[in-house]
Design goal:
This protein is α+β, with helices and mostly antiparallel strands and 97 residues long. It has a domain at 1-51. It has helices spanning 28-40, 63-77; strands at 7-13, 18-26, 44-49. A three-stranded antiparallel beta sheet has the order 2-1-3, sandwiched between helices. It binds zinc ion.
Length: 97
């Protein structure tokens, strides 16, 4: 087990056309789970590799997350076409909600 494959999750807020941090310092599994939950709420989600562990305690107040979100929002408004990665919908035994 290592800390080297940490992920940051950003969700896209269509109301304000910006990305919002939704999680950081997550394992690949956790990030995928988070992304799937958010996608289930109809949000577009981006998952990125983190080069290093974020120091912010909470992604809500994390400067690194904020930077990532701002960069991405800027790319978005520059009209950079990107393919949204869609996670495969996995049918699982348990169902929520
Ligand atoms: Zn962060």
């Amino acid at each position: 087990m290592t800390d080297t494959s940490l992920k940051v999750v950003l969700s896209f807020d269509e109301a304000s056309n910006t990305f919002t941090p939704s999680g950081h310092n997550l394992s690949a599994d956790k990030a995928e789970e988070k992304a799937r939950t958010l996608q289930g709420q109809g949000l577009k989600v981006k998952v990125f590799d983190q080069p290093s562990r974020h120091k912010g305690r909470s992604f809500k107040t994390c400067a690194s997350c904020k930077n990532a979100a701002e960069n991405l929002s800027q790319q978005q408004s520059d009209g950079v076409e990107e393919h949204w990665e869609e996670l495969p919908a996995v049918a699982e035994g348990g169902q929520e909600g």
